[in-house]
Design goal:
The protein has 158 residues and is an alpha+beta fold. It has helices at 2-24, 56-73, 96-101, and strands at residues 28-37, 40-48, 81-85, 106-112, 118-129, 132-137, 140-145, 149-154.
Amino acid sequence: MAQAAANQELLDRLNELLTPVVRSEGLILVELQFRPEGSGLVLRLFVDRPEGGVSLEECAQVSRQASDLLDVEDVIPKRFNLEVSSPGLTRRLKTPRDFEIFAGRLVKMMVREPDGKMRTYRGLLKGIQGGEVILEVEGRLRAVPLEGVLRANLDVSF
């Protein structure tokens, strides 16, 4: 349990340090991962822009700035590899903030209905209100409790 708390503390500190770097480039830090892979450790930053996506040069710029800052702050005592990338066109939506940021975009959501059945919806994300994701499906609004959303992704297929 102490190790899990220490890991979370490190992730919180990394998030605190790196969010301003990402924002300075007009981007948002979507996700931060730090974990063992292969024979070493990898710190992976997923960055995005709500409108228009992220270029390779922007990822490289964030990588350079983050690397310099991490060298100075020395919060990770072991050697690690830093990767900065975009979550992609069909990125997953996980947090209430994601559902706010990407309102107006097409999404595909798998939900658990109140009767326990699973159903997939495709539609226009309207946002989130009172813990419910609002989705426009075939011209009708549908409110889905956030806890009922099993998986949600941006959708570019329709």
